[in-house]
Amino acid sequence: MKIDRHMGIISYLIDHKKTTAKELSEKFNVNIRTIMRDIDDLTLSGIPLYCEKGKNGGIYLSDSVELNKPPLSKTELMSIETSLKSRLQVLDDNSTFNAILKLNKIGETPDFEIDLSLSKGNTELRKLVLDLLSSIRNNELISFNYINSQGEESKKTTEPYRVVYKDKSWYMDAYCYSTERFNIYKLARMSNLSIIGTFSKREYRPLSYNGGEWMEKNKVRVTLLVNKLVIDKFLELLGRENIKNVDDTWYSVIYPLNDNVFGYNTLLSYGKFVKVVSPASFFNNFIKYMDEVRNFYR
């Protein structure tokens, strides 16, 4: 991210007083031209940087800079800091940490905070996110094994374009060579990622994640009875338009689900607080699956 690099450059200059465009380009994995554009942007925004040419020249941060008076307003900086903290919780990358160090100079407590931190056992997913971001930035062609929502496994060769965090899960927009179109891939279903070459970027428009339409593809609209003890989960996911109050304890909910083990396991995670009402085909398949699970433990 550009903001990460800008804050990282400032933090680096605070510590080292002097640097060079070559040194910064190596540190942030970008070319020298990009670094010089960054220096111009920072100078225009009010950061007192200056450059000297020659054998002993370089890029300097003026000794007169007052770190408690950043060029952005406190509200803007606090909003940026909140976003960066959320990114740091998930990715734990050094550039974001450097940006937060700079922003913390404002000395204010934010009025809004997001906690997206992954569990300690989820380091593999964290690494996958960082690897994919690297491949996107370097135009690297990737291959991986993928298990779809039907439980079918296949080998994919794709051009990665974007990583998205949505509804507590990570996804990737990528152009698939087998389907010859852009698809959404869930990172938790990917394994054995490898880089097999490079590619030239084609025309790409970010795939839509709005409204949940993409999640409802090939899903069945299941009517549920949901206990008030867990209704908050469904309100967050579906909104009130899909939920109706039945009595003091139960709600009627329309929930798009896969008619397979993935959908059944989603319901089982709510235990006795959720009951399937219709359609009959889904109800019968769900009962059959529960019988199979019960028999497995006998």
Topology readout:
Elements: H1 2-16, E1 18-19, H2 21-28, H3 32-44, E2 49-52, E3 58-61, H4 74-91, H5 94-103, H6 123-137, E4 140-147, E5 153-166, E6 169-176, E7 181-186, E8 190-198, E9 220-227, H7 231-238, E10 243-245, E11 250-257, H8 261-268, E12 274-278, H9 280-296
Antiparallel strand pairs: 1-3, 2-3, 4-5, 4-8, 5-6, 6-7, 9-11, 9-12, 10-11
Helix pairs in contact: 1-5, 2-3, 4-5
Strand order of the largest sheet: 7-6-5-4-8
Mean pLDDT: 78
The H-and-E topology, N to C, reads as HEHHEEHHHEEEEEEHEEHEH
The CATH class name of the largest domain reads Mainly Alpha
What is the CATH superfamily of the largest domain? Answer: Winged helix-like DNA-binding domain superfamily/Winged helix DNA-binding domain
Q: Estimate the helix proportion, in percent.
A: 25-40%
Radius of gyration: 25 Å
Number of strand segments: 12
The assigned CATH architecture of the largest domain is Orthogonal Bundle
Return residue spans where pLDDT drops below 50 for at least 5 consecutive residues: 65-70, 103-114
Distance between the termini: 54 Å
